[in-house]
């Protein structure tokens, strides 16, 4: 009688009415997960088990697929290479030797016209920077204009005067300038020319006001931002913002910071554009040439362009995020600045976060009192405007730093 375990005939006649090539009731082929034949008779077998297959195909629960053909997959099955429901992964026409073959998946996408999946943009309802999000920390806002608002981050890079630092900006001074509208870039093509001009003008006005405040405390602003395009394929397409940090003037003027930052960039493969004409041309052209897609970019400024900064020469660094420089470490600006300030432990904002909301409110109140005289008139702000109460009533808020 047949040896049912290996389905090898012993030369004896079968019993119980079963033929020599028919397995007993309950037997299931381990290659295709179908009953009715032994594993060595399976049409998927070619001398050995196909490379990359599991001990059972998807859906292999010992039940029939109901299609009457062991080469057809069970109902609901989807090929892992081309995502088609019409064949098992072992029979995929785009597979070479393995169901996990990366090049096979690329060929399948190319043949079917399927595009590589891209990240879903972060919408206003999920965005910590949008004022309409009720989860925002309203108490950190220190100024609201027509196009932007200014707020303290959850974990400032710099220490405040109350932390034992001999000099510094009241309340710390590290702030975010955030567009009120949900936009991934100051160069977003979704902005009309008028809206883009108003947004960038107010951003520049807030930078000048911050520069004046910092100068009163013998500091210089260092700011940076990352602009993303709506069609980009990276992990997050969210809400752009500019981070501004006060840096001691003597450290900047005595350290030739332009060369320092260029050197730090080269260490990690970043080649900055720092000549004024090159930077100006990029932003005047809207971050693109001709019909090109708007480029992703990283912009950093030491001081404020067009403003006298004493011994400090205002400098703008631009890094166009495409090609070999498309992948940008968003932590790099803060990590590098923390090291230059000799406070590497403050590279992680979580380490710097205040323990209680009361401490955050006190810090925001200190900074707001110092900043208000310099920001009077920017975006409609003036000395009589109580933007804190307005923020509470209007649902205004500000995110934490989201890992920056």
UniProtKB/TrEMBL annotation:
Upper classification of the organism: Eukaryota, Fungi, Dikarya, Basidiomycota, Ustilaginomycotina
Biological process (GO), any one: mRNA splicing, via spliceosome
MF GO annotations: nucleic acid binding; RNA lariat debranching enzyme activator activity; zinc ion binding
Domain Zinc knuckle CX2CX3GHX4C as annotated: residue spans: 24-42
SUPFAM superfamilies hit by this protein: HIT-like, Retrovirus zinc finger-like domains
UniProt name for this protein: CCHC-type domain-containing protein
Pfam families: CwfJ_C_1, CwfJ_C_2, zf-CCHC_2
Bias-annotated ranges (Acidic residues): 380-392
InterPro entries recorded: Cwf19-like (IPR040194), Cwf19-like_C_dom-1 (IPR006768), Cwf19-like_C_dom-2 (IPR006767), HIT-like_sf (IPR036265), Zn_knuckle_CX2CX3GHX4C (IPR025829), Znf_CCHC_sf (IPR036875)
Top-level taxon in the UniProt lineage: Eukaryota
Region (Disordered): 1-20, 371-404
Keyword Zinc (UniProt): yes
Transmembrane segments: none
Domain Cwf19-like C-terminal: 123-252
Compositional bias (Basic and acidic residues): 393-404
Alphabetical UniProt keywords: Metal-binding, mRNA processing, Zinc, Zinc-finger
All residue ranges annotated as the Cwf19-like protein C-terminal domain in the record: 317-374
Gene Ontology terms: cellular component: post-mRNA release spliceosomal complex
């Amino acid at each position: 009688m047949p040896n049912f375990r290996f389905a090898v005939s012993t030369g004896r006649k079968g019993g119980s009415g079963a033929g020599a090539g028919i397995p007993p009731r309950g037997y299931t082929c381990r290659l295709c997960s179908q009953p009715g034949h032994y594993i060595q008779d399976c049409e998927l077998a070619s001398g050995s088990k196909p490379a990359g297959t599991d001990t059972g195909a998807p859906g292999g629960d010992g039940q029939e697929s109901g299609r009457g053909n062991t080469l057809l997959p069970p109902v609901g099955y989807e090929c892992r290479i081309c995502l088609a429901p019409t064949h098992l992964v072992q029979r995929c026409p785009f597979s070479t030797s393995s169901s996990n073959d990366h090049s096979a998946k690329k060929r399948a996408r190319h043949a079917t016209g399927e595009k590589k999946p891209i990240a879903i943009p972060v919408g206003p309802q999920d965005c910590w920077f949008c004022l309409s999000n009720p989860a925002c920390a309203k108490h950190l806002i220190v100024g609201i204009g027509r196009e932007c608002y200014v707020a303290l981050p959850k974990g400032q890079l710099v220490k405040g005067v109350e932390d034992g630092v001999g000099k510094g900006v009241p309340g710390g001074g590290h702030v975010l300038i955030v567009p009120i509208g949900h936009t991934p870039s100051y160069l977003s093509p979704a902005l009309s020319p008028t809206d883009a001009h108003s947004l960038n003008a107010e951003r520049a006005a807030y930078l000048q006001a911050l520069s004046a405040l910092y100068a009163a405390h013998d500091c210089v602003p260092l700011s940076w931002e990352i602009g993303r395009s709506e069609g980009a394929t990276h992990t997050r397409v969210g809400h752009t913002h500019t981070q501004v940090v006060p840096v001691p003037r003597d450290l900047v003027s005595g350290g030739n910071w332009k060369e320092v930052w260029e050197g730090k960039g080269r260490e990690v493969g970043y080649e900055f554009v720092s000549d004024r004409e090159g930077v100006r041309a990029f932003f005047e052209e809207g971050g693109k040439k001709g019909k090109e897609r708007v480029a992703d970019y990283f912009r950093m400024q030491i001081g404020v362009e067009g403003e006298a900064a004493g011994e400090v020469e205002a400098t703008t660094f631009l890094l166009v995020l495409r090609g070999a420089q498309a992948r940008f470490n968003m932590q790099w600006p803060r990590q590098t600045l923390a090291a230059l300030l000799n406070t590497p432990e403050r590279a992680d904002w979580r380490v710097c976060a205040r323990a209680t909301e009361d401490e955050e409110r006190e810090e925001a109140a200190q900074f707001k009192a110092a900043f208000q005289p310099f920001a009077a008139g920017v975006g409609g702000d003036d000395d009589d405007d109580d933007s804190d109460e307005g923020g509470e009533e209007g649902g205004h808020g500000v995110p934490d730093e989201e890992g920056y």
